[in-house]
Amino acid sequence: MEHADHVGLLRGAVDPGGTWADIGAGSGAFTLALADLLGPGSHIVAVDRDAGALRRAAAAVESRFPGVAIETLVIDFTRPLPLSGLDGVLAANSLHFVPRTGQAIVVGELAACLRPGGTFVVVEYDADHGNPWVPHPFRYPTWEWLAAEAGLSEARRLGRVSSQFLGGIYSAAARRGRPRT
After folding, report:
1. β-pairing verdict for 86-92 and 69-74
2. Cα–Cα dist 11/165, whole Å
3. Residues with Cβ within 8 Å of residue 22, at least 6 apart in sequence
4. Over the stretch 11-52, which tens digit does the pLDDT of each residue have?
5. CA 104 to CA 128: how far, in whole Å?
6. Using one digit for the tens of pLDDT, what is the confidence trace for 127-168?
7. With 0-12 CB in 10 A as exposed, 13-18 as middle and 19+ as buried, what is 112?
8. I want to staple 134 with a disulfide (CB 3.0 to 4.6 A). Which of 87, 130, 152, 171 is the partner?
9. What single string gives the DSSP state of each residue in the chain?
10. What are the residues facing 175 on neighbouring strands?
11. Does residue 38 contact residue 14 with C-beta atoms inside 8 Å?
């Protein structure tokens, strides 16, 4: 996929500005797309357990989008994260590394990092069965269930692109509920 594909998958859920976390950022393909959409004055926390990949992601964002503040957090995202009040969480091609039995728990913990009304975006292979490189993908109906289990609402599909691996990749979003008044 190209940068335009990454941006296109996120476009329907990411508004300019704010503070987002890119969960399982790796070397930053989707971090760059997020920076492109968020624009100057925004802040991204790139989360991954690979410090070298995060250095490359931060350098790419600083080079291409100097108005976007980027910080890195070297941690396994399946552990509790020291993040809160985020406007958005992006989990692009990362949740399929979590065994299916733990995905709802991890999505719930990540959703808890959002402010009320914050957006959770997932990018995932559109398949129910994986392979050694993508062990636990899930289709959109499973995302709807995961989102509901995590207390997220307004789940919706954003887009889909074809992929030579497992047929396609989709993006979807949901929101953290607002407190009742």
Report:
1. unpaired
2. 23
3. 28, 30, 31, 34, 44, 45, 46, 47, 57, 90, 92
4. 999 999 999 999 999 999 999 999 999 999 999 999 999 999
5. 15
6. 888 888 889 999 999 999 999 999 999 999 999 887 777 778
7. middle
8. 130
9. --HHHHHHHHTTT--SSSEEEEET-TT-HHHHHHHHHH-TT-EEEEEES-HHHHHHHHHHHHHH-TTSEEEEEES-TTSPPS--SEEEEEEES-GGGS-HHHHHHHHHHHHTTEEEEEEEEEEEES-SS--SSS-S---HHHHHHHHHHTTEEEEEEEEEEEETTTEEEEEEEEEEPPPP-
10. 119, 153
11. yes
Whole-model pTM above 0.85?
yes
- Token code pair at residue 154: 């307004």
Length of the chain: 181
Place of tokens 């990411």: 14
Tokens 């899930």 belong to residue: 138
pLDDT tens, position by position, 57-104 = 999 999 999 999 999 999 999 999 999 999 999 999 999 999 999 999
Structure tokens at 142: 């499973």
